[in-house]
Task: inverse folding
């Protein structure tokens, strides 16, 4: 199996399966025809259509704002939760907090979305806040489900890190707050960045939860795209997809290059 | 939240020495957020599942009503749950969700395993590049990856055009709006979740095992079946869980690729809420899903964790 041809062929077919739809999506975004499956010559008209579509542009701006705020809030709360679970030893409610930071990872989105919407409606009735639904309620919902992902990443980094660093700082007289900001935070910073990026992507990508908790005037990009593609294939969505794929591919390529260089440097040092 | 003496000194050093107020504050912030926005919503969900729908804002009946003599009268009932039990639509939706998720998971494993194994056996830098190629689609939009298949599967789509051109078929195949399309969509979008844990597990296996097996005269196929496969069971379990769990509650894929007869519970819940505007029935569908799907899954994960079987 290792030196034979079976494995490379099967793996190659797997990669074709992964990339064929993406390649087709990109190719047909440059198609002159509205029909997404008949090639009628090269054109960039769907990109022009995309960038003059106010609804899409507005939704993209709403989505970016929501993703930025939710990812940041989720990172702060997620790191706090991770810190509490990894460093605080025993306290009342520990099991509850553990459950509440892992359950969102397996919770179906329809349940999260529906239950949060019902909470917002009930809260509005009882205390008058949040009045109506919009960006604020989407941010709260996204923060809550992204928090769990950040907490998991930060927690595993906190478990792996050398605790003697924190102990040394403490022996030298640093208070707990100082230890956290001067020692712990710099060490786990890469994990927090990874968590923030994951939270940002998850928020930007979410359709189901946003559809439940969003209100008028706060349609996110996935909500607008979904209402478009429900009616069938549309080439300006292909153009949008191509832009997203290009941004992600460039970012992943840069990240890959940095990781590769780091690995090489580490190898050389050893 | 926490008694002042408790915990202090339970794990000496570091933040454990934070004063009572600081320590409690750090615990309280994430705890209160999650209590309010994660736990309390389930109680609201449970409460509304006991109501009846009503043309009002919000569209459900109150649980208590003040009688003429000023006493509180209980109005809640289990009617919605009785409906879920009596109407075969809901039962079939739960069963077919599990069936579709199961089939998709098996196919994701069959397609993902060779990819993971090939990457794990590749030298650097090819390994890193291939790994990034697997991760890349995951960072692009989920919705747009499902959408990509619409252009492939529709009546005038690429697959039908190709098959007609080659002459394998005389008339276009109906692929969109079928259960097959839903399964394909799930396999496609969740494949990275299958490959990554499998890869992580396969790279950990010591090469010496394969060499020993080969030295003892086992053919590559025998080595694979008797050495590689059993050693990769934790990776297989982890990958299958990551595909199976989100697939059950999936809404987007059946909504875009499935037909009217493709029943999935996430879609039933969505339609009850958005189309039928029946909030109480939607809430009871969610509660039943929680008990039939989410809690068993959490229990299983905990069980596998304790047995050390997860990748």
Result:
């Amino acid at each position: 199996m290792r030196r034979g041809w079976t494995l490379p062929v099967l793996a190659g077919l797997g990669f074709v399966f992964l990339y064929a739809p993406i390649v087709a999506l990109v190719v047909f975004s440059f198609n002159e025809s509205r029909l997404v499956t008949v090639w009628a010559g090269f054109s960039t008209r769907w990109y022009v259509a995309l960038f003059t579509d106010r609804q899409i542009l507005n939704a993209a701006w709403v989505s970016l704002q929501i993703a930025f705020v939710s990812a940041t809030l989720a990172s702060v709360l997620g790191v706090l939760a991770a810190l509490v679970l990894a460093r605080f030893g025993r306290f009342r409610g520990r099991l509850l907090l553990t459950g509440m930071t892992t359950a969102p990872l397996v919770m179906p989105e329809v349940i999260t979305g529906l239950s949060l919407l019902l909470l917002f409606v009930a809260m509005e009735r009882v205390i008058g806040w949040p009045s109506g639904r919009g960006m604020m309620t989407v941010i709260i919902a996204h923060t809550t489900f992204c928090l769990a992902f950040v907490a998991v990443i930060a927690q595993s980094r906190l478990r792996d890190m050398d605790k003697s660093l924190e102990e040394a700082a403490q022996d030298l007289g640093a208070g707990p707050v100082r230890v956290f900001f001067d020692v712990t935070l710099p060490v786990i910073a890469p994990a927090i960045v990874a968590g923030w990026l994951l939270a940002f992507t998850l928020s930007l990508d979410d359709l189901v939860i946003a559809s439940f908790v969003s209100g008028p005037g706060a349609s996110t990009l996935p909500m607008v795209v979904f209402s478009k593609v429900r009616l069938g294939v549309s080439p300006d969505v292909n153009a949008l997809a191509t832009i997203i794929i290009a941004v992600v591919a460039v970012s992943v390529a840069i990240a890959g290059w940095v990781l590769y260089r780091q690995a090489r440097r580490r190898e050389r040092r050893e | 939240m926490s008694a002042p003496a408790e915990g202090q000194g339970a794990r000496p050093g570091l933040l454990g020495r934070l004063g009572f107020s600081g320590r409690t504050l750090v615990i309280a912030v994430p705890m209160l957020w999650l209590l309010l926005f994660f736990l309390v919503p389930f109680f609201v969900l449970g409460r509304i599942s006991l109501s009846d729908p009503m043309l009002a804002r919000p569209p459900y009946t109150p649980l208590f009503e003040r009688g003429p003599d000023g006493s509180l009268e209980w109005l809640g009932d289990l009617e919605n749950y009785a409906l879920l039990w009596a109407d075969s639509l809901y039962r079939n939706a739960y069963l077919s969700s599990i069936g579709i998720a199961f089939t998709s998971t098996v196919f994701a494993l069959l397609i993902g395993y060779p990819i993971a194994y090939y990457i794990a056996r590749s030298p650097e830098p090819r390994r890193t590049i291939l790994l990034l190629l697997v991760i890349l689609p995951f960072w692009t939009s989920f919705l747009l990856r499902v959408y990509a298949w619409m252009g492939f599967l529709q009546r005038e789509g690429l697959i039908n055009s190709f098959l007609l051109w080659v002459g394998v078929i005389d008339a276009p195949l109906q692929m969109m709006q079928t259960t097959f399309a839903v399964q394909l969509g799930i396999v496609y979008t969740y494949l990275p979740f299958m490959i990554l844990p499998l890869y992580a597990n396969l790279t950990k296996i010591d090469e010496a095992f394969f060499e020993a097996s080969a030295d003892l005269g086992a053919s590559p196929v025998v080595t694979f079946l008797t050495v590689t496969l059993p050693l990769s069971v934790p990776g297989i379990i982890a990958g299958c869980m990551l595909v199976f769990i989100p697939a059950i509650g999936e809404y987007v894929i059946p909504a875009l690729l499935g037909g009217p007869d493709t029943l999935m519970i996430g879609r039933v819940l969505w339609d009850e809420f958005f189309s039928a505007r029946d909030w109480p029935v939607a809430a009871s569908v969610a509660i039943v899903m929680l008990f039939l799907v989410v809690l068993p899954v959490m229990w299983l994960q905990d069980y596998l964790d304790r047995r050390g079987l997860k990748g």
